[in-house]
Amino acid sequence: MSKLSNKSKLFVPEPPFRPGDTPDYSHFSVPANHTPFRPDPMCDHHVTSEHALKLIRVLRFNGETYGEWAPDISADKMREGLEHMLTVRIMDERMFNMQRQGKLSFYMKSKGEEAVSVAHAMAIKDTDMTFPTYRQSGILITRGADLEEMMCQLLSNEGDSLQGKSLPILYSFKKHGYFSISGNLGTQLIQGVGWAMAEAYKNSDGIASVFTGEGATAEGDFHYALNFASTYRAPCIINVVDNQWAISSFHGIAAGEGETFAARGVGYGLATLRVDGNDFLAVYAATAWAAERARRGGGATVIEHYTYRMEGHSTSDDPTKYRPLEEPEAWPYGDPIKRLKDHLVLIGEWDDARQDALEDKIKKKIRTAYKAAEKHGSLATGTRIDPMTMFEQVYEEIPSHILAQREEFKNELD
User: Fold this and answer.
1) In terms of Cα–Cα distance, which of 388, 142, 102, 184 is closest to 284?
2) What are phi and psi of 306, to 5 degrees?
3) How far is residue 177 from each of residues 69, 150, 216, 235, measured CA to CA in Å?
4) Residue 245, by phi and psi: left (phi above 0), alpha (psi -120 to 50) or beta?
5) Which end of the chain is more exposed for a tag (fewer CB within 10 A), N or C?
6) Quick check: 225 and 193 in contact, CB under 8 A?
7) Is 318 exposed, middle or buried (0-12, 13-18, 19+ CB in 10 A)?
8) Partners of 242 in beta bridges
9) Strand pairing category for 249-250 and 245-246
10) Could you give the CA distance from residue 155 to residue 110 in angstroms, rounded to a whole number?
11) What is the C-alpha to C-alpha distance for residues 221 and 227, in angstroms, rounded to an integer?
């Protein structure tokens, strides 16, 4: 018997470009005519199978809109979205710089992904519960969260309602329908679906919207969530933000370089949409479609937001170690803020002077809020949090060994 000449070989997905390479996305197909078609929100889930492989787009790069997904949205609403996105970006820059000065321990920017959170929040009700990850602060800003209060949570100072118990950027705002962000990736997925099931059980018209990065789709929680959402037709939106990189791991590691992330919803019998995450109007339209479907009893929708993380994963990350320095500028889908601005300019509803004035206004607002927040303490000047609070609001009934530790610590302080 002859030996087999071919042997299996382990395949490890590799990103298209590494540091030192010149990023070239000329092979990307950016459709001029925006596909696919817009079905009725109450269609059978299999009708959206092709939507999981194509890309919903509304804004062309010249500022024009095209296609049946173009939402009926006023210029005032778009200007509001532009302001919210700019607020996210300017606040990110300020807080990143403060982390570098030692004022807070950690920070994560949302640069390049602002449309995903802001447009999504604007397309659902403020009363709908959201289960975010660490790059959806735009939901809070869109819902009117107090900037000083957000910054106190970042600074972990005496103004922090969480008493310094959470990592900066892992916000918790019950009053804004913003579920506490978990540092353990993926946990919020099944929690969000469970919340949606409870809303349906109560015969409420409320829905839940849950977010995850593409990397966490490799976690079991993602598949549990899709299974429950499909079985019980939970009124929720399951958002997968594919920003190309999970920390320093190329997204192919999570996807296996197979089908799109949205396609995983197809296998569970869920409606699925794949949207240009840098297109504010497309994100708004896809979210509104999914929200209508959920409220009318059509069940859950999986939305993949195809976008790009323009900067590092966090302040502890150096992206130049694993991708070319020029890659963010080469990304073919552009900047979500610039694309919406260009559209408003094209239709005569905006100009550079108003853009500059808006940016100046937001910078002053961010600066004022930060100065007020820092008065409550910072990592550099002392957080002013009573250390005894570390034993509070953690357990409903404090275990005996924690009680002993609390007593020992109290004696040391005395």
Assistant:
1) 142
2) -85, 105
3) 28, 14, 22, 16
4) beta
5) N
6) yes
7) exposed
8) 306
9) antiparallel
10) 18
11) 10
Sign of dihedral through CA atoms 229, 251, 248, 151?
negative
Q: What is the pLDDT of residue 183?
A: 87
Distance CA 143, CA 240 (A): 21
First-residue to last-residue Cα distance in the chain: 83
112 C-beta neighbours (distance < 10 Å), count: 25
Long-range contacts of 404-409 (CB under 8 A, 24+ apart): none
Neighbour-count burial of 314, counting CB atoms closer than 10 A to its CB (0-12 exposed, 13-18 middle, 19+ buried): middle
One-letter-per-residue 3-state SS of the chain: CCCCCCCCCCCCCCCCCCCCCCCCCCCCCCCCCCCCCCCCCCCCHHHHHHHHCCCECCECCCCCECCCCCCCCCHHHHHHHHHHHHHHHHHHHHHHHHHHCCCCCCCCCCCCCHHHHHHHHHHCCCCCEEECCCCCHHHHHHCCCCHHHHHHHHHCCCCCCCCCCCCCCCCCEHHHCECCCCCCCCHHHHHHHHHHHHHHHCCCCCCEEEEEECHHHHCHHHHHHHHHHHHCCCCEEEEEEECCEECCEECHHHHCCCCCCCHHHHHCCCEEEEEECCCHHHHHHHHHHHHHHHHCCCCCEEEEEECCCCCCCCCCCCHHHCCCCCHHHHCCCCCHHHHHHHHHHHCCCCCHHHHHHHHHHHHHHHHHHHHHHHCCCECCCECCCCHHHHHCCCCCCCCHHHHHHHHHHHHHHC
CA 335 to chain centre: 16
Q: Please say whether the beta carbons of 127 and 199 come within 8 A.
A: no
In this structure, which amino acid lies at residue 153? Q
Q: What is the pLDDT of residue 1?
A: 47
Per-residue tokens: 1: 């018997």
Mean pLDDT by runs of 10 across the 414 residues of the chain is 67 91 86 81 97 95 94 98 98 98 97 98 98 97 98 97 93 97 92 98 97 94 98 98 91 83 96 97 98 98 97 94 94 96 98 98 98 97 92 90 94 86
Cα distance between residue 278 and residue 308, in whole Å:
8
Write the single-letter amino acid at 349: E
What contacts 361, CB < 8 A, 6 or more positions away?
none
Q: Using CA atoms, how far apart are residues 34 and 7, in angstroms rounded to an integer?
A: 43
Backbone angles phi, psi at 250, to 5 degrees: -55, 140
